[in-house]
Amino acid sequence: MERRIVDGEITLVPYYPNYKASLPWYQDADVCKQVDNRNSVYDLKLLKAMYRYLNARGSLFYTKYYGRLCGDVCLHPDGEINIVVAKSFQNKHIGRRVIGEIQKLAREPPIPKLHAEIYPFNAQSQRMFKRPGFHKAGAALYQMELYLSTRQSPRPV
Fold first, then answer.
1. Which residue, of 14, 36, 66, 129, has the greatest Cβ tally within 10 A?
2. What is the distance between the alpha carbons of residues 149 and 127, in angstroms, rounded to a whole number?
3. Alpha helices, H only, 83-148
4. What is the per-residue burial (b if ≥16 Cβ within 10 Å, else e) of 108-131?
5. How is residue 9 annotated by DSSP?
6. For 9-59, what is each residue's pLDDT tens digit?
């Protein structure tokens, strides 16, 4: 897995253990509620277990914004996307741009459909996924069909 340049501000860096940078994201109660619907924050043991699981299962990257790690994203072989952006970096359209790069990555295996679980109360993440073309497909499911040929026209899943 190689580093991926999203744009002049954002790079995706293949996962490596960097708990000093990532643990603070997961010790923010609001972020934990957004991504996991948890009422408690992560400790180091849970963070390590989560990263071991994601790294074994999919393509796991840190998001780097102007040279600073600010989140992570994982693309699973079944098309599931998990993304976290640290609270202090939210509302800068980082997640939206990262999802665009993940769409490109998903065309490489290829993966025909992407999806994410977004809790109904998480309007911010819903907007983040809707902007690049995901649509609501269930109470907490957002999905997008990838068009593997440039000749195909978009159609809903």
1. 129
2. 26
3. 94-106, 123-130
4. eeebeebbbbbeeebeebbebbee
5. S
6. 999 999 999 999 999 999 999 999 999 999 999 999 999 999 999 999 999
